[in-house]
UniProtKB/TrEMBL annotation:
<dbReference type="Pfam" id="PF07687">
    <property type="entry name" value="M20_dimer"/>
</dbReference>
<dbReference type="InterPro" id="IPR036264">
    <property type="entry name" value="Bact_exopeptidase_dim_dom"/>
</dbReference>
<protein>
    <submittedName>
        <fullName>Amidohydrolase</fullName>
    </submittedName>
</protein>
<dbReference type="InterPro" id="IPR017439">
    <property type="entry name" value="Amidohydrolase"/>
</dbReference>
<dbReference type="InterPro" id="IPR002933">
    <property type="entry name" value="Peptidase_M20"/>
</dbReference>
<dbReference type="Pfam" id="PF01546">
    <property type="entry name" value="Peptidase_M20"/>
</dbReference>
<dbReference type="InterPro" id="IPR011650">
    <property type="entry name" value="Peptidase_M20_dimer"/>
</dbReference>
<feature type="domain" description="Peptidase M20 dimerisation">
    <location>
        <begin position="188"/>
        <end position="282"/>
    </location>
</feature>
Length: 391
């Protein structure tokens, strides 16, 4: 199953891969602003002889046609950075742009997939089928994958595979359990309207601050008392803006939060309950509520066959001890939009190493990647494609 030419190519090109990652890390671009990054990717693939095209506005799709007829497997990497101030002040390749940072490892994903593409070019004539390379913008705002799908990223694709560097598991480990992996991630916004008035004359007012506070306290019972405990779910209120002045009873209150779960029926139920709780809470105090529920990413559900292939490839390429069982995360990933179209799976490659200070949580200003683990990710990309096409 494992191609030794691919393994050797990844090893020989690891220094170049790390250099590319450091370049991308120092030059972060936010979602839908990945112009320089996507141009670099386009040029690199073109120089490898891979047929590629740009998508609007900042995506890249490349296709490597093998020497034999067969299926098409897609490999995906995301490219965008975050609005995070880098705290790794002594890092020689730290971000040169204040307030922007690759704090989630997308620089590593892009570099690993470029290295995988280069390795697969080396076995092109033996490939029974084609490999589609998807370099996606705007994962951090959960809109990039959907846009890529709409522009034909997975048309004609039989299977899709993605990787995320993961600082929460040991370096070089590979996790890809069948079933739920990442949760659906939705946003809700609630506007409560009361009746403002003087802070010293409360009897003539309807206090939106009390309505909003009551809602925040009570809405947790949607999860604790209306959902099957065996169906994981999270409702978090992350923002509340109420009132205008210390001695004015608030007329308006704005609340924003997120909903995470794995089950479609649970998702529908929470959306409905949020509206019921908001309306009824407002009515108790004589106010009104307006709820906006915005569906974001779907849950990432790994296919049984694909995830098993990932685990087999990882065990054969790196050893049985590398395969890691990681529990599902309530984090969101728009890779789900590809899985809505074709079978596939999404793997985690460990990068957590306290000795190298790479154990920091994703989206933290001190997040960094154990660069030695990138070779694991790059080879996993390429070996998965090889194994799938040769099934």
């Amino acid at each position: 199953m494992i191609n030794e030419t691919i393994k050797k190519a990844i090893q020989e090109n690891s220094e170049e891969m790390i250099a590319i990652r450091r370049k991308l890390h120092s030059e972060p671009e936010l979602s839908w602003e990945e112009y320089e990054t996507s141009q670099f990717v386009f040029n690199y693939l073109t120089e490898l002889g891979i047929e590629c095209r740009k998508t609007e506005p900042t995506g890249v799709i490349g296709t490597l046609k093998g020497g034999k007829e067969g299926k098409t497997v897609a490999l995906r990497a995301d490219m965008d950075a975050l609005s995070v101030e880098e705290l790794n002040v002594d890092l020689p390749y730290k971000s040169v742009t204040s307030g922007k940072m690759h704090a989630c490892g997308h620089d590593a994903h892009t570099s690993m997939l470029l290295a995988a593409a280069k390795a697969l070019v080396g076995v092109k004539e033996q490939l029974p089928g084609s490999v589609r390379f998807i370099f996606q913008p705007a994962e951090e705002v959960a809109t990039g994958a959907k846009a890529m799908v709409e522009q034909g990223a997975v048309e004609g694709v039989d299977d899709v595979f993605g990787i995320h560097i993961w600082s929460q598991i040991p370096s070089h480990s590979v996790a890809c359990n069948p079933g739920p992996s990442f949760a659906s991630a939705d946003i809700f916004k609630v506007h409560f309207k009361g009746q403002g008035g003087h802070g010293a004359i409360p009897q003539n007012s309807i206090d939106a601050a009390i309505i909003a506070s009551s809602f925040v306290m009570n809405v947790q019972s949607v999860v604790s008392r209306t959902i099957d405990p065996q169906q994981p779910a999270v409702v978090t209120v992350g923002k509340m803006v109420v009132g205008t002045r210390f001695n004015i009873i608030a007329e308006n209150a704005e609340i924003e939060g997120t909903v995470r779960c794995f089950d479609a029926e649970t998702r529908d139920h929470i959306e409905e309950q949020l509206k019921i709780y908001a309306d009824n809470t407002a009515a108790i105090y004589g106010g009104t509520a307006t709820v906006e529920y915005i569906r974001g990413t779907q849950a990432v559900i790994n296919g049984d066959e694909s995830s098993e292939l990932v685990r087999q490839v990882a065990a054969e390429a790196f050893g049985e001890n590398v395969v890691y069982d990681e529990k599902p995360t309530m984090g969101g990933e728009d890779f789900s939009f590809y899985l809505d179209e074709v079978p596939g799976s999404f793997a985690l490659v460990g990068s957590g190493n306290a000795e190298k200070d790479t154990q920091w949580a994703h989206h933290h200003g001190k997040f960094n990647v154990d660069e030695e683990a990138m070779a694991t990710g790059a080879e996993l990309y390429a070996q998965y494609a090889w194994a799938y096409l040769n099934k």
